[in-house]
Amino acid sequence: MEKRIIIYFPKNISNKKELIEASLKNGFNIIFFEEYENIINDFKGKIIALAPKNDIAINYSFNEISEAKNISGEKIPIIKIEKKEDERKVLEFAEKNFQSIIIDLKDIKIIPLENIVALLHKKNIKIYAFTELIEEVQPFLNVLEIGIDGVITPCKNINDIEKLASLKPLFSRIKLQLVKIIDIKDVGIGDRACIDTTSMLNQGEGALIGSTSNFLFLIDNESIGSKFSAPRPFRINAGAIHSYILQPGNKTKYLSEIETGDQILIVNKMGEVKEVTVGRNKIEKRPLKLIKAMNKEVGSIIVQNAETIRFVSEDSSIPITDLKIGDKVLAYIRNKSGRHFGIEVDEHIIEK
Predict the structure, then answer these.
(1) 25/337 Cα distance (integer angstroms)
(2) Which of 59, 223, 286, 350 has the lowest tally of Cβ within 10 angstroms?
(3) Closest by alpha carbon to 42, among 75, 79, 16, 10?
(4) Which whole-number Å values give the CA distances from 210 to 121, 304, 317, in the listed order?
(5) Around Cβ 345, how many Cβ atoms within 10 Å?
(6) How far is CA 69 from the centre of its chain?
(7) Strands 75-81 and 57-59, how do they pair?
(8) How far apart are CA 225 and CA 309, in angstroms?
(9) Any residues with CB less than 8 A from the CB of 6 and at least 6 apart, and which?
(10) How far apart are CA 120 and CA 90, in angstroms?
(11) Do residues 24 and 158 lie in contact, with contact meaning Cβ atoms separated by under 8 Å?
(12) Are 127 and 77 in contact (CB under 8 A)?
């Protein structure tokens, strides 16, 4: 499920035009306003304004719902949660066929939010919540593991917008593509990195790894064991130490540099993303295989030659020992760019 981070501009800030332009530049086009403001018209067609009397009408109470029936567009009630009984109001709104609700939490936040997610997660309604703190965006979107559909949080300056933009990849989908295997060969003994995470991973969830930063293969975790080894669903036998691995914030790191406490991105075949912590990186000498694949361009990866290393495909995953030329596996392909200590920079680069 793709989740949304919605920017909220408090009515007392003065440089809204500059902030709206920065929001659009960073990929945010849904903006919450407490009340209708003329500046919304300057960006008509570019932003979706959540404000009374606008594209999407916001209502603060049951009493205002009847008035909202005269306003075009979607109507979204805001429900203040100040005591236990207020959680029942959320259920009442959900049963009135609203498409979305916004939860306004007071001092205690996580427990009521967990209760609301538990009440509504099987109903066809989107749950959004206010938070004043950017630090709460990620916990809110992951609450009870299912998370809510979106968070509305205030931005007072461009730094706030950029902080939120760095979180977006965690709650978006990565567009994976099928690539065709064109070459497989042994390349002798080398050092490979085996990454143990602090999370139990589902079958088909893995890390994006490759010899070049623009062509990363989806390598499955070890949730499928072998005749001679038990499943280890916390582990990704990632590849040779020179390989890149994708981290949060669109950053990369060499596998040789990954260490305890680092964060890496875990992706499933639908492109859904989550962040996990590395518990350990084991680097050992092992026999290696080179795999090359092609979509419009050619990418490569070097991994250990063992049946527990699996490439995620459209239907399942294929162990390296069964992989053959012509098979199709999933990869993340991006435009070529340079990397300065893992951070993407626009410069000419040749990697092969």
Answers:
(1) 20
(2) 350
(3) 16
(4) 37, 13, 17
(5) 10
(6) 35
(7) parallel
(8) 10
(9) 28, 30, 31, 32, 50, 128, 150, 151, 152, 153
(10) 9
(11) no
(12) no
User: What are 138's two structure tokens?
Assistant: 């990620």
pLDDT in tens, 15-55: 889 999 999 988 888 888 888 888 888 888 888 888 776 66
pTM of the model: 0.66
pLDDT digits (tens, 9 = 90+) for 244-301: 999 987 789 999 999 999 999 999 999 988 889 999 999 999 999 999 999 988 999 9
Distance CA 82, CA 77 (A): 16
Q: Are 250 and 334 in contact (CB under 8 A)?
A: no
